[in-house]
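Open question from group meeting: does this chain pack into something compact, or does most of it stay loose? Before anyone orders reagents, we agreed to write out a predicted structure and look at it together. Recording both the input and the output here so the notebook holds the full record.
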Amino acid sequence: MHGGGGGAVLDRFRATAGDARRRGEQTVGALGATEPLRALPGEPHPATLEVERVVGASTLVAFRGNRYSISPGLVGARITLRQRLGDGLLRVLIRRQPRSVSGAERTRSVHSEERSALRAFAQGPNDAG
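Structure tokens returned:
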């Protein structure tokens, strides 16, 4: 802090840039006092962290200092990892891929426990948070 004369600077600020500024017949402070503030929401706005990753040959994807195992059937796929901060859950979103053309001899292997999740995803948009 600078010494001396600080009170005069503060008084000048309050008169020209603070609540004592005139707006018509009233000061900014007096006008503001007549405008009630809305109540704060009960919960904070949920911030969401979202990153894209490509599943590599190791089937591990990195997120916030940890590595998570992804199905070997998704090697090479671009996925989105989503975490609502404070939630503790990590959601893995898989982009829809067009169905293979008949006779293209494409083989996809998916872990049995993930089949139902992928089937549910294919039935409609995954907007569970």
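Observations to bring back to the group:
Residues 48-97+109-123 form one domain.
The helical segments are 6-16, 28-33, 112-123.
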